Every structure is written in C-alpha cells, then in structure tokens.
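Inverse folding, one chain.
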C-alpha cells in the first residue's frame, strides 16, 4: 500500500519550503518553533494557512480503474492553479472514504465512523489535515486535533485522516504542502 503515515526513512533531499534545514519534513511539528510549518500560535487557538506553503484541497472523487486493485483519492486544489493530486489507497480505505464522500449509511458503523463518533463524544475536534510529504507513490500526513487536553499533531495516513474529516460535523480543511504538488513519482 502506498498511503503511509508520517515518518519513514530519512532522506538526503533538501527540506521543503517552510521546514527548517536539518529538520525532517515528515516529522510532526516540522516548523521552526516546534509547531507544524504554517501553523499559528496554539496558545491562541489560531491555525493560519500560509498560501505560499500550504494549499487547500477538496476531495473531488474516489476512482478505481480496473484492472488496478487500488482506488485513488482525487484531491483538487481549491484555488489557482487548480492542480490535482491522486493518492492511491487500499481497497478498504477507499471504500470507507467513498461511503463518507457519498454520505452512504451503513447498518453498523465502519471503523472511521466509529472513530469520528469517539472523538466527537470526547470533545476532540479535527482542526486540519496536512499532507506533508510524498516519496514516489507514498504519501505522508498529519492530523491537527484540539480537545480538553489541548492541541496535538498526530502522524497518520492520508486515507485515515480524509476518512475522518469527511465525517466531521463541520468542514475541516485538507492542506497539501506546496512541495508535495511539485514532487513526482
């Protein structure tokens, strides 16, 4: 599967824009002050988006072209230059995302629906999802959460984060690092 959480082997490549030299761009809190690059002051509860660093995207569709065994999440950039990003995911994750994207109810909650309900009942909000890195066809992400115990940035697979944000009561931004669009498989 090519949809990975934050982490992986450290590379020799230069740090992308918004990430200090010597820092691992796939690590949570990759900004100079320990907060995610482009994030605002967590004490104030403000998360800002630097349009030069982070680009807002929306889920456009989930596709599966046979005979390929893996669906793809198709993300469209919400502003000019209107780029597209395709993230291959496993079949179970693609199915879960398709159900959430199309608002299809299931007789019993799927894993991501259950997790969204657990977060909601415990007062934890998903503030944003950031797709932070691409290595070939592997994508890395982090999820910014806020709850009774404060703000936390969690490494995750893009598919899990997207499956959760599509189930949130309020719209949750999905952000892609500018460098992720520029990286090619």
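Residues assigned per position:
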């Amino acid at each position: 599967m090519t949809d990975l959480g934050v982490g992986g082997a450290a590379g020799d490549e230069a740090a992308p824009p918004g990430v200090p030299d010597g820092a691992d761009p796939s690590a949570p809190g990759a900004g100079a002050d320990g907060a995610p690059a482009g994030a605002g002051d967590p004490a104030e509860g403000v998360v800002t988006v630097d349009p030069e660093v982070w680009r807002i995207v929306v889920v456009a569709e989930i596709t599966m072209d046979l005979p390929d065994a893996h669906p793809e999440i198709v993300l469209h950039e919400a502003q000019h230059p209107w780029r597209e990003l395709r993230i291959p995911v496993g079949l179970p994750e693609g199915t879960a995302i398709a159900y959430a994207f199309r608002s299809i109810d299931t007789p019993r909650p799927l894993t991501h629906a259950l997790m969204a309900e657990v977060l909601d009942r415990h007062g934890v909000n998903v503030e944003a999802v950031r797709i932070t890195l691409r290595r070939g066809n592997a994508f890395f992400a982090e999820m910014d959460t806020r709850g009774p115990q404060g703000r936390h940035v969690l490494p995750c697979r893009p598919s899990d984060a997207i499956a959760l944000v599509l189930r949130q009561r309020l719209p949750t931004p999905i952000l892609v690092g500018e460098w992720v669009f520029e990286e090619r498989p």
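The chain has one domain: 42-182. Helices lie at 91-101, 111-121, 158-165, 178-182.
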